[in-house]
């Protein structure tokens, strides 16, 4: 079964710190790592390592980070023929300070070329004919919806980062995979009852076929 991912490609700059900084505070890091990332690219790489037939649709900048992203996906056996280089903007970047003990982190994302992904970019055979189409929300919402409506395959949406979604998009989704925070945001529920039954009731209220 073919898998196509429409989504973000970011270069992650991960900084290890003893503790996360407070507002206006400077802390000293103990290590830094530059890694391929982005919710879309991570999905594609994971699927590619499991088998062939994985396609990535997205945008990178015209910079050295773009080459590193494309090489990492190719190494994971992902077809990157529909990942476009975009002049005049950088590849998306995420800066992530992480506590050495416990792993608590903060994430700041600069979308860069991801923000330039258009509905025309996803009007391609690898989207139309995908057996499974994987989506997230680090690219423009109109492009996510265009991809969901264009495919014949099963649409799986990770609704992150959390934001309100149009009913038309949810109706095009076969499988929605939110965490608790994302589910509450989509359902317009501020919190309260955290029981599995309450969360299941929130999920049933959404338009997606399966949550």
From TrEMBL:
Span of domain Carbohydrate kinase PfkB: 2-203
Q: What CDD domains does the record point to?
A: ribokinase
Q: Which InterPro entries does the record associate with it?
A: PfkB_dom, Ribo/fructo_kinase, Ribokinase, Ribokinase-like
BP GO annotations: D-ribose metabolic process
Superkingdom of the source species: Bacteria
**Would the keyword Cytoplasm turn up in this protein's UniProt record?**
no
Residue span of the signal peptide, if any? none
Write out the GO cellular component annotations: cytosol
**Keywords of this entry:** ATP-binding, Carbohydrate metabolism, Kinase, Magnesium, Metal-binding, Nucleotide-binding, Potassium, Transferase
Is Repressor among the key words of this record?
Answer: no
Q: Pfam families recorded for this chain? A: PfkB
Alphabetically, the GO molecular function entries are: ATP binding; metal ion binding; ribokinase activity
The protein's name is Ribokinase
| Species name | Modestobacter versicolor
């Amino acid at each position: 079964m073919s898998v196509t991912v429409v989504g973000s490609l970011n270069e992650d700059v991960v900084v290890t710190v003893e503790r996360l900084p407070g507002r206006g505070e400077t802390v000293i890091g103990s290590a830094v790592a530059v890694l391929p990332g982005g919710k879309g690219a991570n999905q594609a790489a994971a699927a590619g390592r499991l088998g062939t037939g994985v396609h990535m649709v997205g945008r990178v900048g015209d910079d050295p980070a773009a080459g590193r992203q494309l090489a990492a996906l190719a190494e994971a056996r992902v077809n990157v023929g529909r990942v476009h280089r975009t002049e005049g903007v950088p590849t998306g970047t995420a800066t992530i300070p992480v506590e050495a003990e416990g792993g608590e982190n903060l994430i700041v994302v600069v979308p860069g070329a991801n923000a330039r992904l258009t509905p025309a970019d996803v009007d391609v055979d690898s989207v139309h004919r995908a057996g499974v189409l994987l989506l997230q929300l680090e690219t423009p919402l109109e492009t996510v919806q265009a991809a969901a409506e264009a495919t014949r395959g099963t649409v799986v949406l990770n609704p992150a980062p959390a934001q309100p979604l149009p009913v038309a998009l949810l109706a095009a989704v076969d499988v929605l995979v939110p965490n608790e925070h994302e589910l509450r945001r989509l359902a317009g529920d501020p919190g309260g009852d955290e029981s599995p039954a309450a969360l299941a009731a929130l999920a049933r209220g959404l338009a997606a076929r399966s949550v």
